[in-house]
Amino acid sequence: MNEKISEAVIRRLPKYYRYLCDLETLGLERISSSAMSKGMSLNASQIRRDLNCFGGFGQQGYGYSVKNLKEEIKKILAIDGNYNVVIIGSGNIGQALAKYKSFASEGYCIKGIFDIDSSRVGVTLNKVEVRHLEELETFLEENDINIGILSTPKEAAQEISDTLIEGGVTGIWNFAPIDVDGRGKAEVENVHLSDGLYVLSYRMKEKSK
Amino acid sequence: MNEKISEAVIRRLPKYYRYLCDLETLGLERISSSAMSKGMSLNASQIRRDLNCFGGFGQQGYGYSVKNLKEEIKKILAIDGNYNVVIIGSGNIGQALAKYKSFASEGYCIKGIFDIDSSRVGVTLNKVEVRHLEELETFLEENDINIGILSTPKEAAQEISDTLIEGGVTGIWNFAPIDVDGRGKAEVENVHLSDGLYVLSYRMKEKSK
DNA sequence: TAGATTGTTAATCGATTAACAATC
DNA sequence: TAGATTGTTAATCGATTAACAATC
Fold first, then answer.
1. Burial class (CB within 10 angstroms; exposed 0-12, middle 13-18, buried 19+) of B68
2. CA B57 → C1' C7, Å?
3. Strand pairing of A83-88 and A108-115?
4. How does pLDDT run across B110-160, given as a tens digit for each residue?
5. B202, A10: Cβ pair inside 8 Å?
6. CA A31 to CA A152: how far, in whole Å?
């Protein structure tokens, strides 16, 4: 349990979580790794091995309790807590994320939205008023913000990221098309939305061959 | 060159492409795999091996021509063509993607936006009017649509995807939190935005330990 | 107890990295 | 030619899958 968990395993955790949530909604109480295997198109050994990185959640001859396993993964992913979030950039993606109601119910509370464009300042998105980027530093001092969402042009992303880190943010969710550096202080998740579209285009071409 | 290209290699192509675009903007004419290695935090052998899956684009003693390599990767990814796109669901993400101007300039032309909510029908996003979902089937018959972007609730995603496939769409870019099935006819890129936020939360927890 | 299914070790497979001959 | 750097083979590493003893 103290071994380093591989990136591949971590990236599968949200998938397990989603699947277990669905099973719970359907009213299922228990599930075996082989049943999960079929439902998720993953190898059953892999599922058992993945889960055993974090503990022995199953029971021989029975399988896993859906509810229990879901809760355990929720804890492992640390999505059972509360996070204070700021969004920088109130353009297309920034607005979409700001308006996304589920975040708050999942514990990601949007405390502030910032933009450099004065014409956007003052607009209210999901009950949060857009402030000017100049206010960011002071805002970070006065509020305990954990996560910063970057939806700025790529030119601004690293500098704003540094400001966020300086202000105590330890997680950056970056939608700007550049790999932002956490300076060893913050974890960074770089999204690169359009990469997915490019990969899709590649596969469409390959398929049509 | 006829060997099956691994998913890992394909996922790195957009990253190479972005990096080369940046180099070109900076006015660089040539680059070696070891220089790329430093700039991208990838192993130089890996870069050469990846590129050689598709052809010998380099030159011994010289390296790679930035412009040429960029153009080659563009062709490999098939992002040098034109695609006709529809967006299904004009909610937060759907709107953000519809308003994203760069798509059109990159050859992804949004031909139609559809929603089941009558109150959204008639709204114009980036010069395209939102139509009622009922019109989708006919629209697909009358237009040659290649790609469908799904930004619907998860309950509707698979059914609409099937309609799209029936209408000749061969690529689905799915933002609904469910794994959509291409029925062997269409390529599907399932995005799962919130997975990234979960992984970020996990890593923030691990780091703080 | 018998059957089922986990947890875990061993085997396989594939991806990454190192090394170097080829060659510009 | 000498130096640089690719393209490619060989070595290593890590991840996936299979197998099975442990056990509920």
1. middle
2. 48
3. parallel
4. 999 999 999 999 999 999 999 999 999 999 999 999 999 999 999 999 999
5. yes
6. 43
Contact yes or no for B147 and A177 at CB 8 A: no
Cβ atoms of A34 and A44 within 8 Å: the answer is yes
Provide long-range contacts, Cβ within 8 A and 24+ apart, for B24-29: B24/B66, B24/B67, B24/B70, B28/B66, B29/B65, B29/B66, B29/B67
Please name the residue that has the structure tokens 């939102």: B130
B47 in Cβ contact with B37 (< 8 Å): yes
User: Do A85 and A147 meet the contact criterion of CB atoms below 8 Å apart?
Assistant: yes
When pLDDT is cut at 50, 70 and 90, the band that residue A119 belongs to is very high
Interior CA angle at A80 toward A74 and A83, to 5°? 135
Residue written as tokens 């011994």?
Answer: B60
Q: Which residue of A has its CA nearest to B203?
A: A187
The stretch B176-189 carries a mean pLDDT of 97
How much is the pTM?
Answer: 0.96
Q: Which nucleotides of D are covered by protein (CB under 7 A)?
A: 2-9, 14-19, 22-24
Distance CA A148, CA A168 (A): 10
